[in-house]
Write a structure and sequence with these properties.
By secondary structure, the chain is mainly alpha-helical. The protein is built from seven helices and two strands. It has one domain (3-75, 139-224). The protein has a two-stranded antiparallel sheet with strand order 1-2. A hairpin with a 2-residue loop joins strand 1 and strand 2. Helix 1 (3-10) runs antiparallel to helix 3 (63-74), helix 3 runs parallel beside helix 5 (143-158) and helix 5 crosses helix 6 (182-193). The radius of gyration is 18 Å and the shape is globular. The chain starts with a helix and ends with a helix. Residues 1-21 have low confidence and may be disordered.
């Protein structure tokens, strides 16, 4: 499987403009901690800037954008959108298939869905799951949500036979570890020990901080590596 080819096709969510540009064209990444990561991924056509010469490394990433990127990095195929079975998400949304895929595979935690419910409906075509509730896919993703999505996609891509590749989670020693939500704690532990995410430079993890485009790029590179 050519992971980079898959990502080039799927990870258009990093950009407002998807016109490929060389990393040298970015004027706002010089001296940034993620400069080399952004340069590498941009030069390979994996990510794009928000314009011809800007990447906006400290800009935000939405939930839908990051799930699209994580699925691309993990080589997870999309499941076609089914009208009426994907929470409050409309067919016209560019991320409709991505969210249907995440729901069907159980990769979105219930805690991220308001008034979540699921009902198994049986008709002449068989049984299917119909999901209820509201999911704000265009909301900027937080760091703990991003860690959950990355770990969920990575673990799913391994399959049952590959789970032994995962390192066992360990206790975290971030200053703000107690602030990590209970539903996200195990995923953050797994994502951290398996090298998908890292802490902040000040000894914190910043679980409720809005994730940045640079942080998302770093996680995508970690998933590819």
């Amino acid at each position: 499987m050519n992971i980079r080819r898959i990502i080039t096709a799927a990870v258009l969510a990093m950009a407002v403009s998807v016109t490929p540009v060389m990393a040298a064209s970015f004027t706002d990444t010089h001296g940034h901690w993620a400069e080399s990561i952004i340069d590498e991924l941009a030069d390979k056509g994996i990510i794009s800037g928000v314009s011809a010469n800007k990447f906006s490394p400290d800009g935000t990433v939405t939930r839908a954008e990051f799930y699209r990127m994580a699925f691309g990095a993990a080589g997870i195929k999309s499941i076609p959108y089914r009208d009426g079975e994907c929470l409050n998400i409309k067919k016209s949304a560019w991320y409709a298939d991505t969210m249907q895929s995440a729901l069907d595979r159980g990769l979105i935690p219930d805690a991220m869905i308001e008034n979540y419910s699921v009902e198994v409906v049986t008709d002449d075509n068989g049984s299917k799951a119909v999901y209820g509730g509201s999911y704000d896919a265009e909301k900027p993703i937080t760091r703990e949500e991003m860690a959950y999505a990355a770990q969920a996609a990575y673990q799913y891509s391994l399959g049952e036979d590959g789970l032994e590749q995962l390192s066992l989670p360990m206790d975290l020693d971030f200053v703000d570890t107690p602030l990590i939500s209970a539903w996200a704690m195990n995923a953050v532990k797994h994502a951290y020990v398996n090298g998908l995410v890292a802490g902040m430079g000040d000894g914190t993890f910043g679980p409720h901080n809005t994730a940045t485009r640079a942080q998302a790029a770093a996680i995508i590179k970690n998933m590819i590596d």
